[in-house]
Amino acid sequence: MVSDEEAMALVLNRLRRAQGQLAGVVAMIEAGRDCKDVVTQLAAVSKALDRAGFKIVATGMRQCLTGAIPEGTQPMTEAELEKLFLALA
Questions:
Q1: The CATH number of the domain where 34 resides is what?
Q2: Quick one: which H or E segment has residue 2?
Q3: Total of domains in the chain
Q4: Which of 7, 26, 84, 85 matches a 20 to 30 Å C-alpha distance to 56?
Q5: pLDDT tens track of the chain, all 89 residues?
Q6: In terms of residue numbers, what domain contains 29?
């Protein structure tokens, strides 16, 4: 669905950041760190994942609005876009 190279680069950066943050959360739990610190970092991971998902949905919406659908693919319906968006809510 995402063909915009710039948007994909942003998504990948966010996902890599979240991956690193998640590894940090695991290490914090293994080290017996304070619950408050663990939850704070876990919230940061969740936010990074949400932003990556929203960027993907926004890119799909922009493609539908501008008609810039990648060749060989079908445009997403309004219902499909809504379902994707609500999956992140």
A1: 1.20.58.1000
A2: none
A3: 1
A4: 26
A5: 445 788 889 899 999 999 999 999 999 999 999 999 999 999 999 999 998 988 888 887 777 667 666 677 777 777 887 887 788 77
A6: 5-87
